[in-house]
Design goal:
The complex is a heterodimer of chains A (about 350) and B (about 375).
Chain A: H1 2-30, H2 36-66, H3 73-90, H4 99-129, H5 138-159, E1 164-165, E2 175-179, E3 182-185, H6 186-208, H7 210-220, H8 222-227, H9 232-258, E4 260-261, H10 265-280, H11 285-307, H12 311-325
Antiparallel strand pairs in A: 1-4, 2-3
Chain B: H1 2-9, H2 13-31, H3 37-61, H4 70-83, E1 84-85, E2 97-99, E3 112-114, H5 116-135, H6 144-163, E4 168-169, E5 172-173, H7 202-224, H8 226-236, H9 238-243, H10 248-274, H11 284-297, H12 302-327, H13 329-332, H14 343-357, H15 366-373
Helix pairs in contact in B: 2-7, 3-7, 3-10, 3-11, 3-12, 4-5, 4-10, 5-10, 7-10, 8-10, 11-12, 11-14
Classes of the chains: A mainly alpha (about 350), B mainly alpha (about 375).
């Protein structure tokens, strides 16, 4: 009995996560359908998942260090998308811009969008969370919700209440390569080209650098870290800076991938990415990235097979199941929170 | 001066003030246009007072941050939509089912029509069951994880309401999605006949006022009860409360269920008043709107929640659409937007400002005030408070 429980605890989540893809795999094979459509869903899932992973890292970094669900993070990502769209106009990038100009322009946009969202995130921390360090945990969570609403309204004022279209600069639908009908398109390439180096840079920074060490120490025990001469406030601000940088990058990729942006995108994306972070074990970087890819695949499967209208229910059902049965996620240790 | 303070502190002062306020609220509608904008605001205000008092039980008393309170509004409103309209048109061979309603005028009106008193009881029961179900998975969780799980439930409720036109129960859809279930029966109660005309909103207001006063009395009684003290105990220190013999599961579930029941009955009332029920009314922003009322007044403070609800309803229904947009600041600045679009940003701003500057709210509960001011800004207690 105990062995069964231990087994369920260890592999139960993996089984539950594999359930949906496995069901459609078996159904397609049994129905004699080609697996191409499922393959395309997986490719789209991976590239969407790359975007969720970037956002999820922001949640997981912040939660790891101050145990706060940074509710406004999804909306910071939305601002990243809006800034990107605005800069495309400023730089005069259109679908007829040449390849060299396009690469240079997009790189510049990427850098600026990342800086803007990073500064925004740091500012939110300074104004909304730092004054509340000593208050009960509900207090900063409530200010986070408040900032989320403020940013959504900023977005609504900026581009109006309806989705705005983004020029398809990279001609995202063109194939990079195609294996028997399963297409790997330019937009999928873009998502991975931006995400993978950033994730490697981030993990190296946190794992190798002095500042990264300070972050890990603060996450482990803020008071002891302070006694060791680490400036805890600066370290926390740095964490928000890193989260904001990643959210800005995700914003540009999302805008180019979906070719439309909307003030409400951040709310949904934030919840999906948060689910990814919890799935991987909140506070765990590796887990957040893996969780992003898994939730991307689940979301794409649901979009194409069950219907996009129902995707929130599927994602939230996963979120609730994980929270209830395995709050530590795939990689996390038992957190103080879930203990 | 000391005389004034003496009167204020006497134990008769609060009940006397409350009685005077209620009397004034009964008299005021008689002096204003029964179909005016102000009547509309007052009806919304009493409905939101009930919502805020319900949420205050969960968030204020028991300290469980519930971000999915909109689910109970939806359940209450759809109860009205199902059981007090022609939604189930062909039921009973098109002759309808009538329970406790006056059938003199339309003896064979299609659909289910039940008396409003039965309706709010049904709404409260269904909502409290849903509240307990939502509460169950959060029992093992603490703090912000509860917030996320309840938020997920709230979003699931919205998604189901939004896509409900695809769900069939027999021949009927669950909801009408973005199109409304309408019209909803006007509540008809014995003795209310003079107010129950299409030409007056007074009947709605008095009904809501009566509900709000009952809910207020229930809240005041609950706060002093054994259960109320158990809620505060688990809010302050769950481990200590359990070791003192507070039954954790029952106490938490009761707070969810009672809070939900109040939300459900207010939902049935507001659903009947708005006369059309569509999915767009049940967005996440509603949960935050009610939360902002409770926080503005002071978490855990009953009178605070009442005043918070009235202030925010006034801002939402009178100040922003009336006063602010009439001044037309944006037009003078050459900008093109409506303050109506900004209402939730304004509430978000309010949340931030309140939390940073006055986390205990405008009318704090004494116990809560101590908890929040102690250690704020002192380095030593920073990390203990979080553990």
């Amino acid at each position: 009995m105990d062995a069964a429980r231990e087994y369920a605890g260890q592999y139960g989540l993996i089984v539950v996560l594999a359930l949906l893809p496995a069901y459609y795999l078996i159904k397609d094979i049994a129905g004699g359908k080609s697996l191409v459509s499922l393959g395309n869903v997986f490719v789209a899932g991976i590239s969407n998942g790359a975007i969720w992973a970037l956002i999820a890292l922001g949640y997981t970094l912040v939660y790891g260090i101050i145990e706060l669900i940074n509710f406004a993070h999804g909306d910071v990502f939305m601002i990243g998308s809006f800034v990107s769209l605005g800069l495309m106009g400023t730089f005069g990038l259109t679908t007829s811009t040449g390849a060299g100009g396009l690469v240079f322009g997009l790189l510049a946009i990427l850098v600026i969008a990342m800086l803007v969202t990073a500064l925004l995130n740091v500012m939110i921390e300074r104004v909304g969370y730092r004054p509340l360090r000593g208050a009960p945990k509900l207090a900063p969570l409530i200010t986070a919700v408040g900032f989320s609403f403020i940013l959504q309204d900023v977005g609504q004022l900026w581009l109006g209440g309806n989705p705005s279209s983004v020029p398809d600069l990279i001609r995202g639908g063109q194939d990079v390569f195609n294996i028997g009908g399963v297409a790997f398109e330019r937009q999928d390439a873009l998502a991975l080209i931006v995400t993978v180096p950033l994730v490697i840079l981030l993990t190296t920074f946190i794992g190798r650098s002095r500042l990264g060490k300070a972050m890990r120490a603060t996450a482990q025990d803020p008071e002891a870290a302070r006694l060791m001469g680490i400036n805890v406030d600066t370290t926390i601000a740095l964490t928000f800076l890193l989260g904001g940088l990643l959210a800005g990058a995700a914003g540009l990729v999302y805008a180019l991938y979906q070719t439309q942006v909307w003030f409400f995108q951040g709310f949904r994306a934030g919840l999906i990415a948060f689910t990814a972070a919890v799935m991987g074990g909140i506070g765990n970087l590796r887990g957040a990235v893996l969780g992003g890819f898994i939730i991307g695949i689940i979301q794409q499967l649901s979009d194409s097979r069950i219907g996009g209208d129902w995707t929130p229910v599927i994602v939230f059902a996963y979120l609730i199941l994980i929270m209830v049965f395995k709050p530590s996620g795939l990689f996390g240790e038992e957190t103080r929170e879930a203990g | 001066m000391s005389d004034v303070l003496g009167i204020v502190r006497s134990r008769w002062f609060s009940p006397a003030l409350a009685a005077a306020a209620i009397l004034a609220l009964i008299l005021v509608p008689l002096g204003i246009d029964p179909l005016s904008n102000t009547m509309d605001f007052m009806i919304y205000a009493v409905a939101y007072v009930i919502f805020a008092l319900g949420l205050n039980i969960v968030v204020g008393f028991a300290g469980l941050l519930d971000l999915g309170y909109v689910a109970f509004y939806a359940i209450g409103a759809y109860s009205a939509g199902w059981f007090a309209s022609d939604h189930f048109a062909a039921i009973n061979g098109g002759k309808g089912v009538h329970i406790g309603v006056d059938t003199a005028q339309l003896p064979e009106a299609a659909g289910i029509h039940v008396n409003f008193l039965i309706l709010i009881v049904v709404a409260a029961i269904v909502a409290s069951i849903a509240g307990a179900i939502i509460g169950l998975p959060t029992l093992r969780l603490r703090g912000d994880y509860i917030a996320i799980v309840t938020l997920a439930f709230g979003e699931i409720a919205f998604t189901i309401a939004n896509n409900g036109s695809d769900i069939k129960i027999g021949d009927y859809t669950l909801t009408e999605g973005q199109t409304a279930i309408s019209p909803i029966d006007q509540p008809k109660l014995p003795g209310f006949d003079p107010f129950n005309t299409a030409l007056s909103l007074r009947g709605y207001f008095y009904l809501g006022l009566a509900m709000a006063v009952i809910v207020l009395l229930v809240n005041l009684a609950l706060r002093e009860s054994r259960l109320g003290r158990a809620w505060v105990a688990i809010r302050e220190d769950e481990v200590a409360a359990v070791s003192m013999g507070v039954p954790l599961v029952r106490t938490k579930l009761l707070s969810y269920a009672i809070g939900a029941a109040l939300g459900g009955s207010a939902g049935a009332y507001l659903g009947s008043y708005t006369n059309s029920i569509n999915a767009n009314q049940f967005k996440f922003s509603f949960s935050i709107f009610v939360l902002a009322m409770v926080i503005l007044g002071g978490l855990g403070s009953i009178w605070g929640s009442v005043i918070g609800a009235v202030i925010l309803t006034y801002i939402d229904r009178k100040f922003i659409p009336g006063t602010l947009d009439n001044i037309d600041i944006q037009g003078k600045l050459g900008l093109d937007f409506s303050f109506n679009d900004l209402s939730f940003g304004i509430f978000g701003f309010l949340l931030v400002i309140m939390m940073v500057l006055r986390p205990q709210g405008l009318f704090p509960e004494r116990r809560r005030k101590l908890e929040l001011t102690e250690g704020l800004g002192t380095d030593e207690s920073v990390y203990e408070a979080r553990a």
